[in-house]
Structure formats: structure tokens, C-alpha cells
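Quarterly update, task 2.4: zinc ion-bound model.
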Amino acid sequence: MIRPAKGKSGDDGVRILAIESSCDESAAAVLDRERGLLAHELYSQVDLHQVHGGVVPELASRDHVQRLLPLVERALAAAATTPAQLDGVAYTAGPGLIGALLTGAALARSLAYAWGVPALGVHHLEGHLLAPLLEPDPPPFPHVALLVSGGHTMLVEAGGIGEYRLLGETRDDAAGEAFDKSAKLLGLPYPGGPHLARLSGSGRPGRHHFPRPMLERSAGLEFSFSGLKTAVLHAVREAQGVPAAPAAGEPNDPSRRGGGPRPLDPAVAADIALEVQSAIVETLVVKSMRALEQTGHGSLVVAGGVGANRALRAALDAAAQRRGARVYYPRLEFCTDNAAMIAVAGLARLAAGEHDDLAIRARAQWPLASLGRPTPEERHP
Ligand code: KG4
Ligand code: ZN
């Protein structure tokens, strides 16, 4: 049975449950069109994956299976909402880790079936893009969005909900990946972005210089971050007294030449961290300002985990102010993965009558530009 756009109460109130499980965060949220965000619950698997130095997909899926239903129950209780008051269930259908996605999709689809309401698979990046709509002063459309997460770095022109045009993206590593890989080389725990940001606070500027590839105008709005980790590796090796390349006739094994690499001096690690952050921030700022210039828009939305970085926020604010433009951010906790943002995207579409059929669907890859405006039709992820 498919319910129309009207809420169960017969008035305009529409209330939905949303579930997120695309990577290593399990989350559930309840959003009401009139009353706003009623509850959001999150469990981060960071401790589970930290010992492995990165997300292990099978462990992520197994943990989602255990965590999701209790999170849904907690979110409904915190929102003082019974299933009978819900008008739909939204879930992240992609892009992401396929096994992880399927755990949330199967649960959401089953709950919606049992409760007799529509289910809708949401695009994870549309969730990130629309997260700032939860704030008291939401961004106007059209705007430019900078999407910077562990898996994506892209600039998007957003004409409205579902109207996304890709302006440019990374050719290799994502900005979050560049933070995480550099942090790993500095011996910081996973995920390294926030740790590197913290360490950079005590760094001394100018002691290292890292590349800012593709800043030139001819590179347009494309990004490339893969060269950064190589430059960081060289800087770390140099600081540890490891020769860059083996001398002629010598094996490249520093332990045979007197004791092996020195432990990295924490002050030097902080200097490197500061310059890594500066290189990433400067690149993101230059490209974002170029995107505003090219489109003529005066608003920039920043979304995704790297949007939590304070140096990035300060630099973007300053650069935008010089242009007379404004930057909009989600609150810090909604920069990284969460179900509240999935609820925003899901509610916009469910309230318009959009819904899936009874199949359980998930997509590891799903181009953002293939989305359209919310429609009162059956559409599938
Ligand atoms: O959006 P998100 O939670 O997950 C993905 O969809 O990828 O983003 C996670 C990424 C990680 O790479 C993490 O290191 C980075 O966001 N991140 C940060 C900060 N907080 C999270 N990077 C730099 N500075 C931060 N404060
Ligand atoms: Zn994300």
C-alpha cells in the first residue's frame, strides 16, 4: 500500500524514519515536516575498525546488523513516535559499501512493509548536500556545494532539491582520504582527519611545503590529492633519517645502516600536519571560489566529513567574504555520516509521493547527477 503525500493525520504533517548504514556509522532519525528533527541516534564503529587502520567491510556489515534495530527503537522512543504515526521510511541506498548498505536497506524495506508505509532509497551524497537545511538559517537555491568526505571530493551546482550538476571532482584521492593517509604516515589513529587537524594546532608554519596540484586555471574545477601522500612520505622519511633512495650498491634497508628510522619527533609531526592541512585547505578554497565565480552564485554549501575542519571553515569564510558571498555549513555533528541528513532528503521525496517498489535495492556506485527532482512516482535507486 502506498500512502499519498498527505500525512496520516490528514493534515500536512508528514513524519518519517530514516536509516543510514553506508559505511562505518549506524544511525536512525525521525523527522517531521512541521516539527522538524524529533530524534537522531548514532553508533560509530570507529573503535571496531581502528585496530585494522581502516574500515573492514565485512565487520562493518555485521555490526550494522546488530546495531540498527536498537537505534531505530531508541530514535522512535526519543521522538515519542509510534510506527502508526509514520508516513514512510527512508534509507541510504548508495553509494557506499554494498554489504553495509544492504543491512540498512533490508531493515528499512521490511519495517516499511510491516507498517504499511512507503520506503525510499536515498542517495547518501544528496543527504550530505541537504544537511544544512536542518539549520535555522538554511542556504537558498541555487548554490554551489563543496562535497568533501572520505570517499568523495566534488563541486556541484545545486539548482534545487534533486537538480545537481557536477562542476568538477577529484581524479584520484578524496580530500578526506588525503587527510587520513597523511595522518597514517604520521602515526595517527584512524580515521586520521580530526587527529591531524588537532595536531596541526601546535605546528610551526613554513617548515615544509607540499604540492597543491591543479590549482592553475586551466585545470578548472578538477582536484588531485594523490601526490600529497607521496610528498608527506618523503618528508616523514627525511625527518626520520631514512635516505630517499638507496645509495649505489647499498640495500635500501636503514636498519643495516645503524639503527633504523628514528621515531618521528612530535614537533616535526605537528609541522608536517599543519602544512598538509594548509595544502588541502588552500586547494579546496581556490576551487570553491572559482566555482562561485564561474556560476555567478553567491552561496556556497559545504558538506561531508571534511567540512568539520575548522581551518577549512575559517579560510572559506574569509575568502567568501572578500567576494561578498556566504558559506553555509551543517552543524558539526551532521558533517560526518548521520541519519538526520538522510531524513531530510527522504522527507523531501516521500512527501512529494516518491517511493520504491517492494524490492530491496542498494548501489555501491550511483552518480549524483542521475537524480531528478522529487516526483510523485515509483522510482528506484
Ligand atoms: O562524510 P564522512 O563522515 O564519511 C564519508 O562519507 O566518507 O567523512 C569522513 C571523512 C574522513 O576522511 C575523516 O578523516 C574526515 O571526514 N574528517 C575530517 C575532520 N573530521 C572528519 N578531516 C579533517 N578535519 C576534520 N576535523
Ligand atoms: Zn558520507
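Highlight for this quarter: The radius of gyration is 22 Å.
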